Amino acid sequence: MKLGCIGDDFTGSSDLANTLAKQGMRVVQYSGIPSEPASEDVEAGVVSLKSRSIAPADAVAQSLAALDWLIAQGCTQIFFKYCSTFDSTPDGNIGPVADALADALAADRVIVCPAFPGTGRSVYQGHLFVNDALLNQSGMENHPLTPMTDADLRRWMTPQSKYDIGHVAAQTVFAGADAILAGLNGEDAAGKRHIVVDAIRDEDLMEIGRAAADLKLVTGGSGVALGLPRNFGCTPGKPDWEGQSGPVLALSGSCSTATRAQVARHAARHPARELRAEDIIDGRETPDAVLDWAMITGDLPLIYSSADPEVVKAVQDQFGRERAASAIETFFADLARLAVARGVTRIITAGGETSGAVVEALDLTTLEIGPEIDPGVPALRAKPDLVLALKSGNFGAEDFFEKAAGVLGP
Ligand SMILES: Nc1ncnc2c1ncn2[C@@H]1O[C@H](COP(=O)(O)OP(=O)(O)O)[C@@H](O)[C@H]1O
Ligand SMILES: O=C(O)[C@@H](O)C(=O)COP(=O)(O)O
Predict the structure, then answer these.
(1) What integer is the mean pLDDT of 147-161?
(2) Which domains can be identified in the chain, with CATH numbers?
(3) Is the reported ipTM for this assembly greater than 0.90?
(4) Ligand with minimal distance to 258 CA
(5) Which class for 233: exposed (0-12), middle (13-18), buried (19 or more C-beta within 10 A)?
(6) What are its E.C. numbers (predicted)?
(7) SS3 for 303?
(8) Fewer C-beta neighbours within 10 Å, C or N terminus of the chain?
């Protein structure tokens, strides 16, 4: 293994694995830290953790354990993947994990770059934009777990990290890899360890990738990984893929803007069943009954708890943020387990935490990367008779669920 990756959630990890696979690397996504060595032919390993919204100390411990495993596989560069919307709170977990990885690797000039132009995320003058809106005006300010209320990445990262945060501005990035490296060196000399690097186009990311060839640690969204495979001699390619026939089920616990539009569109055309958080928490809904409904109805049924920000806020005020999230995630996890036991072979999940809960419940250890469904979302094969799509909350076109079902199989 050459490139070792640690993803702070499962959708983000599949997004990263997708980017690396498209750039020609032989990639495997692991669910949690594997207990065995990787197969010899894997060039990039992505260890998916569910560490984005847990206690910072736990996120650090899990990330360091993942690092140990990746180093033991021979990796010479480590990539820490977080969300292209920089999902974190003033306590973490991006800063504490980046600090711990940098310390463990004795890494300097740590790039911080969530840009992903293909999905509208750009970093300009240290600020993160989603299309034409600043991050904190993009809907992400209402995220149920990590409300993003400031678009200045340097300011957002500062309370999270024990190190000073530097910046390489767009003008330098536009001048290419040598200038970027000089910019990183300058910030390093000024005592900055984590360095926000601007990027607004894929060309910028390719140049940042070139500049990062000898760095021990790179952090960011999947975009900044675009230029890394070339450093390892890889050239773009297409994965082998054969779809899977059989019953399909879509599950959505994401309350992000894009997912809510996808849910609304799907519900107007296919069977869709809404789960109210209070009914789950009070036990009025059971996974068995909901699955019975899905198996009888067919036609790409969608089960969702996705709700508008006011509804989510009322639920969180009544039950507490963590209790609500955990009850809903457990429900989806139980539902997925029952669905597979009853013969479902294609599962589509929307939402990073939701997807993590589902993959962990299904006890899937490795995921093979298939073709891209929409930017940042690949088809995945988990077992000979089970394929998945793990959709990041804000990714995908409005007809994503239909599209995903089509790519996953006939
Ligand atoms: N109706 C709801 N009320 C409160 N919390 C919810 C509701 N629906 C889902 N959640 C929780 O919100 C979180 C959404 O996070 P996630 O699945 O990562 O989606 P995204 O990828 O959009 O961030 C999950 O923890 C989920 O259980
Ligand atoms: O970088 C991204 O935006 C995604 O890969 C990602 O991490 C999304 O996370 P969720 O929105 O929580 O699914």
Answers:
(1) 98
(2) 3-231 (3.40.50.10840), 248-408 (3.40.980.20)
(3) yes
(4) 1
(5) exposed
(6) 2.7.1.217
(7) strand
(8) C
